[in-house]
Amino acid sequence: MKTADPYLNFNGTTEKAFNYYKSVFGGEFKSLQRFRDFPDAGKVPPEALDMIMHIELPLGPNNTLMGTDAPESMGFILATGNNFSILINADSEEEASRLFKSLSSGGKVTMELMKTFWGAYYGACTDKFGVQWMINFTYKKA
Prior knowledge:
Elements lengths: L2 E8 L3 H12 L5 E4 L17 E8 L3 E7 L14 E6 L3 H12 L3 E8 L4 E7 L5 E7 L4
């Protein structure tokens, strides 16, 4: 396993929160994508288009703080306790599959493990203890 990083969910305040975290921790955003950048942006409610789909702020050489907006208009209901996940960056598809299968056993799959448009093998689940996990393996760019 490469890393385990916190992934935070906000209801429309991701950009404000991450600008604050940037002022606290320093550094520059490694990634910032809006919902309008999503290939299916035509299916995104208009009020969510400029919200943050994904953002990354490095915290030192080995960890990254990540986040997203989770608008209710897209079916998200945030509450204290479900507003964060632990993102595991696996070393291989095989490791990602093993971790996902184990962590989702007895829990709930929120996104099946699959190849994604952003170049990763990714899935999300909540384990049987209520902890939210995101499993990710990023393919090497050719």
